[in-house]
What we know:
This protein is an all-alpha fold and 322 residues long. It has one domain (2-308). 80% of the residues lie in helices and 0% in strands. The longest helix is centred in the middle third of the chain and has 31 residues, at 155-185. Mean pLDDT is 82; it is low at 317-322.
Amino acid sequence: MLFGxxxxxxxxxxxxxxxxxxxxxxxxxxxxxxxxRYLAFGLIALVLAWxxxxxxxxxxxxxxxxxxxLSFVGNVIYYLCLSAxxxxxxxxxxxxxxGTLPVVIAITSNLRDAERDGKLPWRKLAPSLGLIAxxxxxxxxxxxxxxxxDPGADLGRYAxxxxxxxxxxxxxxxxxxxxxxxxxxxxxRSPRSWATAQGLTTLPLAIVGYAGTWFVFALNDAPWQMxxxxxxxxxxxxxxxxxxxxxxxxxxxxxxxxxxLPTTLVGxxxxxxxxxxxxxxxxxxxAWPAPSTAxxxxxxxxxxxxxxxxxxxxxxxALPPH
Length: 322
């Protein structure tokens, strides 16, 4: 239990890095951050593929197409939306919105897979949803007050940030459900090799996206220094750090935790990611969160933990006789 919890904590600490990367490279467009991160991860996956080469040979063309879809939505589009959201709205609100993922995924699965996985009673989920909504509202209110106090603030930009964060939630709600479908339908396959396959399919997407970005910048005479922007050392270093730590080591630690802890407990510990991201964001700001923001964070965590304690109930196989 102790080592499993420490592994989950380590995963959360590393996953939180993806939320501060856009702040540390605020002068870089979101496309550079998304394609750069996954270009680095794809190159790392090439090394990992050597160790999984036997399992990768078993994948069919349909499997590789599915891996490509998962990589495009769950990696490239997700992080593109998240990076753009953080650069427009700051880190706290998008992080809170992304923090609702465990519950959003549970609700979506409740509507989609109740026959297979059991149904979560809506009456038991209602209190957690209320806590989460109140938490997001508190953080949003505090961020809006800070924006109104800034004469140069752009409320429209902030609103677009919130919309993009919700788009990121949609991407990462679709991804784990679709990914779980493949894993359940291929129970004899290695989850590690499947993750490596997704890393490999991410690489050509990242190369095409990066080259396309370079071409568009050149076509429009954008004042941008390609291939690595105005701070190449910081950019390349951070992209490889996030690619290695968040994309690979974070997942490895999470898998280790999943092997040691009950599934219900592992699901609750994903809040380490949200808390780490918020802690890093306020460290970069050099300030403690305002009382209302701290209260909102507490409500979000309480709501997620409440929801993840709700046990699925089996759906009756047959309708009762009339």
